[in-house]
Design brief:
2 copies of one chain form a homodimer. Chain A is of the alpha+beta class. Helix content of chain A is 49%, strand content 25%. The first copy, chain A, has a domain of 101 residues: Jelly Rolls. Chain A contains 8 helices and 8 strands. Chains A and B meet through strand 5, helix 2 and helix 4 of A and strand 5, helix 2 and helix 4 of B. Chain A binds a DNA duplex through helix 8.
DNA sequence: TGCCGATTTTGACAAAAGTCAAAAGAAATC
DNA sequence: GATTTCTTTTGACTTTTGTCAAAATCGGCA
């Protein structure tokens, strides 16, 4: 009960416009956000090119686990793809909570495990599937992305050029 | 102190030959192993082809985090690349330990975070680096793998055919 | 409605990587 | 030390994907 009160007191809710950057590359991430309404993506700037790393929708968590775990500057940007509402709290608040209520480490562990498993599947598909197979997998598993993100974003997410994705799509939907 | 005693009592040490499978695809993983001496790799069987997922050396942990977290059958095999010695304990023992001593969840969380970060870097390199770049990155960051694993294993780890890796290597070491 | 800017598609060509097959080189076994 | 087996390299060719450039399409918005 006390744990719940402590959590409720530190939470803030914000409504933010499409295009807003919740986190910028090179800065140390200080927040966890829960995406209440809208959509977002994480992306990396590689030699001037914009490479999407993940997409997030209602109910997903937005943060840089890397930056949180290491305390180093994030190499990802987090951008809102639509006008959105987020619920946020700071790492300092979270760490204080973890210290006072160590049982939250269990949640942290389970959440991280979940992230890991999803990423593992993604890595596997890069390792031995063609771009076409990855695209069709995406249609099946995460159709939201197709509807809510642009072709360019999706192409870089799949690791192919925009033109190639356009041709894959043209062949047979 | 009690925690240490509990841990010490459940640990077993085993010496196993090269080629031994610590975990087989399709079976539910039941163990954590610490690799004391030797080397190992995780691999996946994809349409008859053998795809390496990771390599491990002295001091590394061998397990299927996926199988542990979900309770589902593992899709990876774990194979010893050399005669090796491992220290092992079961998931049941670990879970009992986590229940009795919840502070171990902190270690679990940190370990998983570490895994995640390494995998994230690997995924990034698939997403926007060429095979040649990935190979040179491997030379720099994990030279052990080059020395202790076969070309075929390394090729599938990098996501290229064996012939392509051989040609990359021929160009300029 | 009509224009502007952004996104997506298409074409032509170049580069990267895969496949199949054979040869060369190492390593293990007798 | 010869033979067998496994690993690595090389060659010829095909397929996949990337790049650059131009055309087509889509979406707001004046």
């Amino acid at each position: 009960m006390e744990g719940q009160m402590a959590l409720a007191a530190m939470v803030t809710r914000r409504e933010l416009p499409k295009g807003h950057l919740l986190l910028e590359q090179g800065k140390v991430c200080q927040h966890f956000y829960l995406l209440e309404q809208g959509s977002a993506r994480g992306y990396y700037n590689h030699e001037g090119k914009d490479v999407s790393l993940w997409f997030a929708f209602e109910g997903d968590v937005l943060t840089s686990l890397y930056s949180y775990a290491t305390g180093k500057p994030s190499y990802t940007n987090i951008e809102l793809l639509e006008d959105s509402a987020v619920i946020g709290f700071t790492f300092d608040q979270l760490n204080a909570l973890l210290e006072s209520y160590p049982e939250f480490n269990l949640i942290g562990r389970l959440l991280t495990e979940q992230y890991f498993i999803e990423l593992e599947e993604r890595t596997l598909s890069f390792q031995f599937k063609t771009a076409t197979e990855r695209y069709h997998e995406l249609i099946t598993k995460q159709p939201q992305i197709l509807q809510r993100a642009s072709l360019g974003h999706i192409a870089s997410f799949l690791g192919v050029s925009q033109e190639t994705l356009s041709r894959i799509r043209a062949k047979r939907e």
